[in-house]
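Session log. Operator J.P. requested a structure for one protein chain; no other inputs attached. Running the standard single-chain path with token output.
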Amino acid sequence: MKQARSILHFMRDFAHRGERTVLVTLTDVTGSATRAPGEHMAVAESGAVIGSFSGGCVEAAVIAEAQEVLAAGQPRHVRYGAGSPYIDIRLPCGGAIDLLFLPDLNRSQIDLAMNILERRRPLKLQLSRSGTFAASEAAETDRTGWVGPAFLARHDPQLRVVVLGHGAEPGALLQMAEAYGAETLLFSPQASLVDEAHGRGRPAHLLRIVGRADSFAVDPWSAVVTLFHDHEWETDLLLQALEQQPLFIGAMGSRRTHTERRNRLLAAGAAPLAIDRVVGPVGIIAATRDPQTLAVSILAQVIQVYENVLARTVADSPLEPALNAAHRFDEHSACGVPHLEALHKTSGNAASPIHAHRDAVGTRGNAVHGRHIGN
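Structure written below.
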């Protein structure tokens, strides 16, 4: 859920002002709905609200219900739509949603939840009809849903787009990623780009020499994209990315440029299977040259990978859903493989389907990207 941090921040701010709030959580969906279980809204005593569960069908009723919950000071589990006692509230899709209202949450648990997400660790919220609210770091196998009397809401860290490059393309991608709501991080030898990012309050680092970069650390929810016209800057930086487990690694350039890039990485000691993790040319729109279209092309590719990884919902097999998600995306990108390897290491399975997946994706993914993007 993209808004988890914003909702927690909303509740903490109102608590600091001395105003009570209610956390509303979608626990179950019957039929179809616009939101999935684990989504939240927060409603303040004054009527201020953040989040939504529909296109406006139930929000007014949710706010009114939250005010009643605050007045009573007791949690409540309510159904809206088919089968609800509120016969005047119907969802256009004909389904139903069940919402858990928890008033006056423990401030220390809200602070703990925010701290976990700010450290870019997966968060588990444990809630119950009796009013329980507890935050902790999520384990790999924790999934959103009911576990006995408790409802678990898992929230993974926000997508972070790490951009390395110079010219017009990095700025366009950074602006697009920020508009989407992703965190951003820039590394560039172009001082004006770094200054512009700092002026927007965004983290950025100046690359002074060709080579490895200080402070270049990524996690499984980060996508690394290189946008260099002078590709000599890339090699050491891509090696740094390959040593870690980012969500995605992509590089701008033509098919010929990508072949040259692979040769430079091989000469630098990178293993061929590791190099297969670098998607090149990056982006899903063919023959893209202007920076804005390229930014859309790249961000769409990155978001789909991110959403596929978040779609891992089978509690007893964390590897399989992500693997299936990556297969669905093979036609556009040889991506998601590094994250799947990290999942496999966590799962501890001896026989890994990753190798077969990588064999199928590695060469085909490069062939699919036989188009000219940038230099």
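Operator note: Residues 4-155 form one domain.
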